[in-house]
Amino acid sequence: PPSVPQSLPSAPNSTRFPPQVGRTLARAQAALAWPEGSPPSPPPPPPPPSPFAPLSDADLRTYLGPGGRLLRPHDLRLHVYHGGVEPGLRKVVWRYLLNVFPAGLSGQERLAHLRRKAGEYAALKALLAARAAPAELALVGAAVRKDVVRTDRGHPYFGGPEDGHPHLAALQALLTTFALGHPRLSYCQGMSDVAAPLLAVLDDEAQAFLCFC
């Protein structure tokens, strides 16, 4: 049988092809023919690792000043953006990232702010539920419930039977309160996917509502 050529044929002479075609083929042959025993160039090195590790409690303290005041919010956000947050610290850091606190509060002032906002949320929830027309309340509640009962049910925080489930009830309440308080927006499919991890991490309905807003 005819042998298989091991390389490109020699460039044809000018009697068969125009000179420019011969020169092009010769250049292609030279480019593709590695010298024997010479390996291709090694791949480029991987990019250097990020200088940011997940934010730890010790890292967070470097962004705080006297009294626990947050002095470098932009640097804190950059650290979280590049490195993330240790899971056990998310409950604290997410409240900074989602602007729950006014700027410049001390640690004690942040606690007082959360207590005040929890009271405001409880009053708002009761007021909106009492003021809404029964048909509106039923319509919004049904739309929210349809998503709540199927959101993150594989997660331990939301797993288990639906009846009497306190975390499903909290998710239902905070989304219904938001929808009633924002009638032009109301409830949209997918809001439960945003609110559920907030509630699971913060484990507090009022604080999850603040972060969701």
Rg over C-alpha atoms, rounded to the nearest angstrom: 32 Å
What CATH calls the topology of the largest domain is Helicase, Ruva Protein, domain 3
Query: Could you spell the SSE succession in H and E letters?
Result: HHHHHHHHH
Approximate shape: extended
CATH architecture of the largest domain: Orthogonal Bundle
CATH superfamily of the largest domain: putative rabgap domain of human tbc1 domain family member 14 like domains
Give the end-to-end Cα distance, rounded to a whole number of Å. 77 Å
GO molecular function, one term: GTPase activator activity
Biased composition (Polar residues): 1-17
Biased composition (Pro residues): 37-52
GO biological process, one term: regulation of autophagosome maturation
